Amino acid sequence: MYTKYWNLTSSPFLSVDSEKLLYPSPQLEEGVARLYYLIDQERLAGLLTGPYGIGKTFLLGCLARRTAQLKLPLIRFDAIPNGALPMARHILRSIGVDAAPTSLPDALMLFQQAVVQQSGRLVRHILIIDEAHYLGTDEGLYLVHFLCNLRIRANGRDMPLFSIILSGTPNLNEMVNRYDSLRLRIQLSWVLTPLTAQQTVEYVQQHIRAAGGDIWIFTEPALRAVYECSQGIPRSINNICDTALVLGYAARQSAISPEIVMQAARDTNLLPAQRAEQPAPAPVSARE
User: Fold this and answer.
1) Buried (b) or exposed (e) across 249-269, using 16+ Cβ within 10 A?
2) What percent of the chain has pLDDT over 70?
């Protein structure tokens, strides 16, 4: 709707999974390198944590592409609260065990049988569990601990059946730290942190540049307001900036001002608490 008005070839803050829109922040690049190391070196398990909207799913997508390059089978799903048994069933099917266990102990026995009886057929799998903070609602963490213990014989040597990546909110770290038998098997832990104020500016301008637009569509004060409202969370940046472009288009503005950004933040429920307590400013009106 607004792309032609702002001389953009696409919506810069919607298709954020596109490689051309990648902003290679140091936080993201180091996270990618650490996770690549985990799967390349056949490690057991790793943690990826951070608040919602920080970019964990994008990073896991990079990891999935790396897995495809290595021609390794990938199992990826979101954790289910109180869902250890259905998750175990799904993993069993993914490694070629055609069975429907009716209890978690039965499922674990099937894993053991597969490792003993089919070790020469099985290959190492990459297992990515997103929303892994939900594993703490029942036997989920024990299931992960159990899977870490499964080993196969391949290429003339022993290796883990699974290299496991758990991704979730920061309380996932706290949960794992209370579970010693699993904590001791975690060989990598990376916390994805928000962008700084300068990185937020670079992020916004990278997305606009990738869509063929003028990087100063957002004025410097507007960019500062984007950081203030988003606190460097990429998903919040995207929501604010996309809404701001719509508002600027509707008002026929020549650039995005901090007032438009604040209105966009209010419209997306991302206005900082101290600003939210103040009366709403008059909406930006369209030019005649």
Assistant:
1) bbeebeebbbbbbbbbbbbbe
2) 92
